[in-house]
Please model this.
Amino acid sequence: MIWSTSLFNWEKFYDLAVALKDREEEEYKRTVISRAYYSAYGRTRQYLESRGLVLTNYQNAHRVIWDNCYRVRLNEVSVIGDRLKRKRQKADYESEISAIDRLVKDSIAEAQKIHQFLNEKEK
Model:
């Protein structure tokens, strides 16, 4: 098997979330929330790894990523990431979600903020 050495572009998950955001079915709305979160999580993880963070234990990987943002002065990214994570957990685990349209809108906006912030930091 041949493995690609290129890094996955996590913003593609964001693009997918945006493409699905206007669908009316709940399964799409839940998918939007989840993909928005994972786009931000993956993008942040790549950013931190490029600055020397090495994940050796994936059991607490999400907590490690958001906590490590504070170490490199990405406090806002950490706060937004934690909010997004809670939204994603609702979408992935709860049988009933109130105000799901608000969660969809907020998830897209918050993921976009993280992508924009990290893109600016890398310039």
Remarks:
- Residues 13 and 39 are 5 Å apart (CA to CA).
